[in-house]
Write a structure and sequence with these properties.
With 170 residues, the chain is mostly helical. 74% of the residues lie in helices and 0% in strands. The N and C termini lie far apart (44 Å).
Length: 170
């Protein structure tokens, strides 16, 4: 049984989602990833501190918006119009969070982002791929939302996103 606890490690491991903003070299990507990373950090912390349906809705919406921002940052290396994807995705995810199956959307965003990244940076894309795959393996196992393994999943997710942004500048 999960218990609400604002002092729990799964609340603080969300800070990893700010990692991409710390390593981004593009100022737009840095600003966007800082904002969406902070939003995901806060939304996920609310969920893990309360374990309410509303908190989970915030977490899901922020997670998908974060992934859309990451894909936009990679796509923006080709065209600044890629940033237009972010508000469109965000509106959909924030208006209809319960209509979205994360087990399809998260891998789809990751595949698209990592595919674009591989075209741009070649083998360096294997670094975030490995981190994302490790996080995915944890999530598929379903360790529970109030476990140390879930905290590792947060850290791997933030590290994978940070590695994507880092590879763009490498």
């Amino acid at each position: 049984m999960t218990r609400a606890d604002a002092r729990d490690d799964v609340v603080y491991s969300n800070l990893a989602y700010i990692a991409p903003a710390l390593v981004a070299t593009d100022p737009v990507a840095q600003a966007v990833m800082a904002v969406v990373g902070a939003a995901l950090c806060a939304a996920s912390a609310v969920y893990h501190a309360t374990y309410t349906r509303e908190g989970q809705s915030l977490d899901v919406s922020a997670m998908h918006t974060y992934l859309a921002a990451l894909a936009s940052a990679v796509g923006a290396q080709w065209t600044p119009w890629a940033w237009a994807l972010l508000p469109v995705a965000a509106v959909g995810y924030w208006m209809y969070p319960w209509q979205v199956d994360s087990y399809y959307h998260v891998p789809a965003w990751a595949a698209g982002t990592l595919g674009m990244l591989a075209v741009q940076v070649g083998a360096w894309a294997l670094v975030p791929f490995g981190l994302f795959a490790a996080g995915g393996a944890i999530k598929v196992r379903q360790p529970g939302a109030d476990t140390w393994l879930h905290s590792v999943w947060h850290v791997l997710g933030g590290a994978a996103a940070g590695a994507v942004v880092w590879a763009l500048g490498a």
